[in-house]
Amino acid sequence: MKKEYMMLAYKEALKAFKEDEVPIGCVIVKDDEVIARAHNKKVRKDCAVFHAEIECIMKATKKLNNWNLKGCDLYVTLEPCMMCTGAIVNSRIDRIYYGCKDPKGGALVSNIRFKRIRNLNHYPEIKGGIMKNECSQILKDFFKNKR
């Protein structure tokens, strides 16, 4: 785990904030090289599936010309939801590093503990709490501005 990669994910979250999107950012790293970066684009694309992780996975698979992202690590500012966790598992990403927990929608440890789901074909390693204060604060600021 390298904090510099979470910092890049955080910079993506800042871009989302400026675009009036929920400020979540993501990067995917392979062999110590960033191969994809993205942020939420649900509002811009008017579609619920364009979370930062999904956007990032799509970019990484295009760059590698392969759906299988074995050997890759994913850094994301907020604990992934069910949809994103499913995409991460299905793309065979090795490790997930996240900033802050998501008590409403998190599917790694907060609500659904996906490692307890039996018979999945892949279980990435998980490490949370990287830059959790910064990742949490940008979300608080965003939603405070919405009220």
Describe this structure in words.
The chain has 147 residues and is of the alpha/beta class. The protein is built from five helices and five strands; from the N terminus they run H-E-E-H-H-E-H-E-E-H. It has helices at residues 3-18, 42-45, 52-64, 82-90, 132-146, and strands at residues 25-30, 33-39, 72-78, 95-100, 125-128. It has a five-stranded mixed beta sheet. Strand 3 (72-78), helix 4 (82-90) and strand 4 form a beta-alpha-beta unit. Helix 1 (3-18) runs parallel beside helix 5. The longest helix has 16 residues, at 3-18. It is globular, with a radius of gyration of 14 Å. The N and C termini lie far apart (36 Å). The relative contact order is 0.17. The mean pLDDT is 95.
